[in-house]
Amino acid sequence: MSMASVSSAGFCYSKSRTGGVRPNIAAATPRSLVVVRAEAQAINPEIRKTEEKVVDSVMVAELSKPLTAYCRCWRSGTFPLCDGSHVKHNKATGDNVGPLLLKKQKE
Length: 107
Description:
This protein is mainly β. It has one helix spanning 85-93; strands at residues 5-8, 11-20, 29-38, 54-60, 67-70, 97-104. It has a three-stranded antiparallel beta sheet, with no helix packed on it. It has a three-stranded mixed beta sheet with strand order 4-6-5.
């Protein structure tokens, strides 16, 4: 088994290769398994580090809800929507990442 690890943007990528046989196929066919897991490191190394939490708001004319928060920490269980996972991430890493807020423009 070969193992390669690449750490980039807070993720660890590992790839292992194993052999296997698919049903109805006589010859062995190699299969790949890819594992991606989040590392506990800062996502935002330099943008607006003087702020407690980096949150940007964008006003949108046509939006079904008055406010929609999109994840920028990549930890949300409801990705691409924010579920507040950045709070735990920020405490663990000292980071200051927050969501992107889409707000409906008032008519």
